[in-house]
Amino acid sequence: MSTIPVKTLKDALSKARNVGLVEEAFSLEGCDFVIRNLRPAEYAAVMQDCAELEELAYLNHYQMSHLARAIVEIDGVDLRGVTIVQVDERTKMELHQYLLDNVISTWSKEFLYTAFRKFGDVVELAERKAREGVTFILPDETDSEKYRRLLTEAKSVEGELPDTLVKAILDEVGFASKSSQQELQSVEQSGLAEFAKEQMAELAEAEVETPAEEEPEPAPEPEAPKRVIRDPHATLQAAIAKRQQPQQAGPAPVVEPPPASQLPAAEVSTRAALIAALEREEETLEIDARAPAKPDPKHVRVDGPPSAGINPRYRAPR
Predict the structure, then answer these.
(1) For the segment 131-145, what is each residue's pLDDT rounded down to a tens digit?
(2) What's the structural domain count of the chain?
(3) Residue 259 within a domain
C-alpha cells in the first residue's frame, strides 16, 4: 500500500476545490450584492429549514433561505469563507442565520422576489459552465422531453397565478392572442359569411355544369293514308274479267289492260264512269258481307203466342 504526502495532495487538488461555484454581481436600490450558487449540503439545509412550514410561509422562507446562504458580498464587505458572526462577547451566530434575521427579513416582497430571480440566473450560469467542454454520449433529455417538461411545469404553476398575469406572460413569449373579444366575434362572423358565400358559389357552379332535363320530343303525328290512284281502264278490265270468269279452283288469270294513253278520250270518260259505279257496288257488297243478315219481319213464322197483345194470325193447335 502506497502513501502520498498531504502537501502534494493539496497542491494537486487545489484546482478541484470549489468547482462549479458561479458568482454574479447585481445592484438593487444602490446596494451592491454578489451571490453564488449553493452546494448540495446547503440545498439540504434549506429544505430542512422549510420542512414544517405551509403554503405562503413556506414560499417566503424558501426564497429567503436560499439568498441567506448565497450572498458572499454586500456593498463591498467580503463574506467569502465566513461561517460565524461574533455578535457580542458571548453570542455567536451562523452567517446565513444572521443575514436572515438582520438583513433579508427586512426586505420587501418585491425586492425579495427580484433577488431570488437573480439567484435563478446564477443557477443557470452554473449549469452552463458545468456543461462546457463536456460531451455526453447519452443526453439527459431530448428536445421533445425538455419541451414537455417545461410545458408541464408551466401548466402546474398557471393555476396559482391570476389570469391577467398569465395573459401578460404569454404575450411576452408570443403565445397569447392580442385580439379582443369583439375582434374575435367579428372574425368569426366574417368567417361564417365567407363560408356561406363559398357554399352559394359552389351551388351555382353545380347548377351551371348540370344540364337541364331535356323535354321529351313530341310524338310524330301519324301520316294520313296515301290515296292510291288507280288506272280506270285497268280497274274496268279487271272487274269485267272477274264477272265473266267461271267458278273454278285456282287463281284467275290476270288480264293486263292497255294503257289509258292508247284509248280515245270518249271511251276513257265512259269507262271511268263505269269503273266508279263498279267500285261503289263492290264496296256495298263488301259491307253487306261483313254485316250480319237481318230477318224480314213479314216472313217470320210465329209458333207461339205473342209477347204482348193478340196476334190475329195465331190459331191454336187442335
Answers:
(1) 887 877 777 778 888
(2) 1
(3) no
